[in-house]
Design a protein that fits this description.
Blueprint (H helix, E strand, L loop, with lengths): L1 E4 L11 H16 L5 E4 L6 E8 L8 E3 L3 E9 L1 E7 L4 H5 L8 E3 L6 E6 L2 E5 L4 E6 L6 E10 L5
Antiparallel strand pairs: 1-9, 2-3, 3-11, 4-7, 5-9, 5-11, 6-8, 6-10
Length: 156
């Protein structure tokens, strides 16, 4: 997991160059289509952005998830949330290669850490990295976000 701020991408020179480009493209989509939630294609490599709005919830009400085929870059556009993350998943989950809708949910993960994200912040989650999005930081609140979905094949 890597996190940063969209206005300070120069502080992360070690991230994959296209990540910065896709983050900037997602911001443009969010500005151009502020009320059009859902999927928006941003290139011909299968990379797309999901614009979403949701209420955060107490962390015990949220599940962790993993993906196999996609990398997530979750960008907070408005509001704030806390996201849990862990690199510890079961050997059975790690051995799976395909997931229905490319997602598997977990009630519990070991060695979970949490990061607090505000508007402009983002977090990158790679396949097999458990992440628990939409956890309330203090009180539940509305959050607007752009989730860049990057097929692993786009990095070849």
């Amino acid at each position: 997991m890597v996190f940063g701020n969209v206005n300070k991408l120069n502080l992360l020179p070690y991230i994959f160059t296209n990540f910065s480009n896709w983050i900037m493209q997602a911001r443009v989509v969010a500005e151009q289509y502020p009320t059009e939630l859902g999927r928006h294609e941003i290139n011909d490599q299968g990379v797309f952005v999901m614009l979403a709005e949701a209420m955060t919830e107490p962390r015990e009400n949220r599940q962790s998830e993993i993906h196999k085929e996609y990398i997530d870059i979750q960008i907070i556009l408005e509001g704030e949330e806390t996201i849990g993350y862990s690199n510890n998943i079961t050997d059975e989950a790690l051995a799976l290669t395909v997931l229905e809708n490319d997602v598997m949910f977990f009630e519990q993960v070991e060695h979970e850490q949490f990061v607090h994200l505000k508007a402009g912040d983002f977090a990158v989650f790679y396949p097999n990295q458990a992440h628990r999005p939409l956890c309330a930081t203090n009180q539940p609140q509305q959050v607007r976000k752009a989730i860049v979905k990057i097929p692993v094949s786009a990095l070849d």
